[in-house]
Amino acid sequence: MGNPESNTSGKIYTRTGDMGLTALTTGERVSKSDFRVRLGGEVDELNSLVGLAASLTGDQEPAALFHRIQNQLMGIAGRLQTPSRVTVEAEILEAMEREIDSLTDSMEPISYFILPGGSPAAAACHVARTVCRRVERNLVALGEKEPLSGTVFQYFNRLSDLLFVLARHLNFREGVPDIRWRK
Fold first, then answer.
1. FRET label pair with 73: which of 65, 82, 106, 137, CA 20 to 30 Å apart?
2. pTM of the model
């Protein structure tokens, strides 16, 4: 993800990572295989998938929500480099729950598993959701090694729910029915 503030030359490349090391926000240089660095990369991957979903919606309303999520993910990715700073504000969690409830109330309830897919935007949401779950699992692993705020776990748990509901909502808006999983 790079730190544009640390590069005053205006060039996109800095050559500082050419030997497999990168700098944390503390200035400490660590291997790019460091668990914290890899987790930041996974959050970046998730952010890119959310951006893909936004680009596929063709509608300002969900695109604005996707962009809010992207800004949140960018902030979290940066804070992941310092354990004591990895937290998410309660207001963000509450807003996500309101969004989930609002979107859920606009659709038929489901009592069965659905297959990921549908419209391109919905399919992108499902892929983002699965990456979000991976981030969540790896955060739990990091949290077993060092203290993390419980709000960061809640954030990714809610985000995966929101991405699921968004996928259903996007399909619903486009008249694409949920595909029921058949054993």
1. 106
2. 0.88
